[in-house]
Each structure stands twice: as structure tokens, then as C-alpha cells.
Design brief:
about 220 residues; mainly alpha; 6 helices; disordered N terminus
Length: about 220
């Protein structure tokens, strides 16, 4: 199209700064022979209309050649400035495109992050459930072991109580037997003491009787 042709010619003009007047002059000539529609399209894409600028310079009192040269120099300056501005700054459309691309990347990053978080949360919940199940199993096993230990200790304690009861009964029987033996010995001793006492009384009485008989005999002898 005409816009593309003019754009390529302007780019060639800027890249070949040694001949700006020739290229801009060719551009002015090309604009003279274009149709109205093509000329309006091209002029809407150009920075400045060189023909209109040249005509204004001629109307201001300059000669045609001076007006064309001045308009070409002004156009060259404007085009170079535009190129430098385009190199230094970003076009709005390009900026919007970059912004949309960044938004798309951010949305993709958010989606991937959310997916990763969901996966991590699911794995964490799974691990928690496994740990909870393991904890419940361990708690059940510990409770079972405690019950077994309690039952064993209760059985041992009952056995120990039975053994202690038997030992106590044996000790009580021995004590009772010992008390009976002591009582029997005491009674036997009392009997022996009573017997000895009676024997003593008998001996004393016998001795007294003997002494009485001897005294009676002696008294008879003395009296006779």
C-alpha cells in the first residue's frame, strides 16, 4: 500500500542521512501524483506535510526553491526527532500489548501458584490424616499395653495377697500352736509347782512329826 511504500522510503531516508534532501524531495513529488484518498492516507501517517509546509513558506515570501529546501530540512529534523523519540520511548499500543502479555503471565503464574498450593494443601492434608491415623493406632496400642500391664499387676497383686494371706495364716497357726504349747507348759509347771509344794508340805509335816515323836520320846525318857 501507499503507507507502506512511504514508510519504507522514510526509513531509507533516515538510515541514509547523507542525502535527506533528495529523499524528501522524492517524497514530495510522490505526494503530488497520488490520488486524494492515497494522499490523505499517507498524510495521516506522516509527521508533517512537506507540500503544505512548502506552500506556507512560499506564501510567507520565500522563493519556491528556498521554501522546498526549508520544508525538507524541517521535515528531516522532525523525522529524526520522531525516530529518536521512538527509540527512547515506547508506543502506547506496544505498552498496552506488553501490559496484556504481563497480565497474561501474571494470571498464568497465579493459576500455577494456586494449583501448586492446592496440591501442597492436598498432600499436607493427606499427611495429616496419615499421621492422625498413626497416632490413633499408637494410642490404641499404648492403651492396650497399659490394660495388659494393669491386668498383670492386678493378677500379681492378687497372687501376692493370696501368698501373704497364706503366710499370715501359717504364722497365725504357729502362734496359736505356740500359745497352746506355752499354756500347756505353764499348766504343767503349775502342776509341778503344786506337786512340789505338796511334797514339801508332806516332808515338813513328816519332819515335824518325827521331831514331835523324838521330843515325846525324849520327854518320856526324862520323866521316867
Amino acid at each position: 500500500s501507499a503507507c507502506c511504500v512511504v514508510g519504507r522510503r522514510m526509513a531509507q531516508m533516515v538510515s541514509q542521512q547523507g542525502q535527506p534532501t533528495q529523499h524528501l524531495g522524492s517524497l514530495g513529488v510522490a505526494l503530488r501524483f497520488m490520488s486524494e484518498d492515497s494522499r490523505s492516507t499517507v498524510q495521516s501517517q506522516l509527521v508533517v506535510d512537506t507540500l503544505d509546509l512548502s506552500h506556507k513558506f512560499e506564501a510567507a515570501g520565500l522563493s519556491r526553491q528556498a521554501a522546498e529546501e526549508l520544508s525538507l530540512h524541517v521535515t528531516e529534523l522532525i523525522v529524526l526527532t520522531k525516530v529518536r523519540m521512538e527509540e527512547a520511548f515506547v508506543a502506547k499500543a506496544f505498552l498496552e500489548k506488553v501490559g496484556m502479555e504481563q497480565d497474561a503471565r501474571i494470571m498464568l503464574f497465579r493459576a500455577e501458584t494456586q494449583k501448586a498450593q492446592d496440591i501442597a494443601t492436598a498432600n499436607m492434608n493427606k499427611d495429616l490424616e496419615a499421621q492422625r491415623a498413626q497416632a490413633d493406632k499408637t494410642r490404641t496400642e499404648v492403651r492396650h499395653e497399659i490394660d495388659k500391664l494393669t491386668t498383670s499387676q492386678r493378677l500379681d497383686w492378687n497372687l501376692e495377697k493370696g501368698r501373704m494371706r497364706d503366710d499370715l495364716q501359717v504364722l497365725r497357726d504357729k502362734t496359736t500352736e505356740l500359745e497352746i504349747k506355752v499354756d500347756r507348759d505353764i499348766n504343767e509347771l503349775k502342776s509341778n509347782v503344786e506337786k512340789a509344794k505338796n511334797d514339801t508340805y508332806k516332808s515338813v509335816l513328816a519332819i515335824l512329826g518325827t521331831f514331835s515323836a523324838i521330843g515325846l520320846a525324849v520327854s518320856r525318857i526324862i520323866s521316867g
